[in-house]
């Protein structure tokens, strides 16, 4: 709606996990690097945590894209982990291309081990990524996920399990300390600082096709102050600011436009 006005090829601030828009701050690069290390070194388990809207899912999608291009991995992505144990195992087998999936847990586990062994013989490592892991409801599900790490040879795991979620997942893992102890790689993704917020905004504009900045310095300072550096909130403010700015025929998004947008957001929750 406003793309043509701002010389954009696409909307730059959509809250979708498009890897093209992953801003490579030091924090995000380190998170991605640690997850890649866990996979390539065939570690048993890794965890990425961060507050809501910090960019965890976008990092996960970037990891997926990289693994697909290397063609050495079989990857499962569980986006809704509020499942029973059997449902979890069934979904994993389904994504691994298994037909005629059994019903009993013992048979599900046997079939999974056979698939992991087959992938290994084909020189492909199996990776299971669980997004929104804080939504795992049952302690028994975490226990079962821990047990998957028993699928291993003398010198390597047959799968790498990656948990991605909000900090609440740590409290749940405290109830399953044996699982917590087996997390080889851990990283907590923090919010962007003011400089990173400025760079994030301009980076996404460039990816969307605009070379020149569209937001004034004071506007970006206000965006950081209100969002506290959470990319999801930054996206919401910037998206509406571009819309309002185009309606008002602005040459750039000044602080007045951003104040109007922020104040409207605040009023919505009063």
Please give a structural write-up:
This protein has 270 residues and is α/β, with parallel strands linked by helices. It has 2 domains: 164 residues, P-loop containing nucleotide triphosphate hydrolases (Rossmann fold), CATH 3.40.50; 74 residues, Helicase, Ruva Protein, domain 3, CATH 1.10.8. Helices cover 50% and strands 11% of the residues. Strands 2-3-4-1-5 form a 5-stranded parallel sheet, with helices on both faces. Helix 5 links the parallel strand 3 and strand 4. The longest helix is centred in the middle third of the chain and has 17 residues. The two termini are 29 Å apart. 39% of the residues are buried.
SSE order and pairing:
Blueprint: H1 26-40, E1 45-50, H2 56-70, E2 73-78, H3 85-95, H4 105-121, E3 125-130, H5 139-148, E4 159-165, H6 168-173, H7 177-181, E5 185-189, H8 194-207, H9 217-227, H10 231-247, H11 255-268
Parallel strand pairs: 1-4, 1-5, 2-3, 3-4
Helix pairs in contact: 1-2, 3-4, 8-9, 9-10, 9-11, 10-11
- For the termini, the CA-CA separation is 29 Å
Spatial strand sequence of the major β-sheet:
2-3-4-1-5
Count of DSSP helices?
11
Low-confidence stretches: none
Name of the top-level CATH class of the largest domain: Alpha Beta
Order of helices and strands: HEHEHHEHEHHEHHHH
The whole-angstrom Rg is 21 Å
Q: Could you please say which CATH topology of the largest domain applies here?
A: Rossmann fold
Helix content: 40-55%
| CATH architecture call of the largest domain | 3-Layer(aba) Sandwich
The class by helix and strand makeup works out as alpha/beta
Which geometry do the CA atoms define? elongated
**Sheet with the most strands?**
5 strands, parallel
Q: How many domains in all?
A: 2
The number of distinct β-strands equals 5
The residue-averaged pLDDT reads 93
Task: Provide the CATH superfamily of the largest domain.
Answer: P-loop containing nucleotide triphosphate hydrolases
Strand content: 5-15%
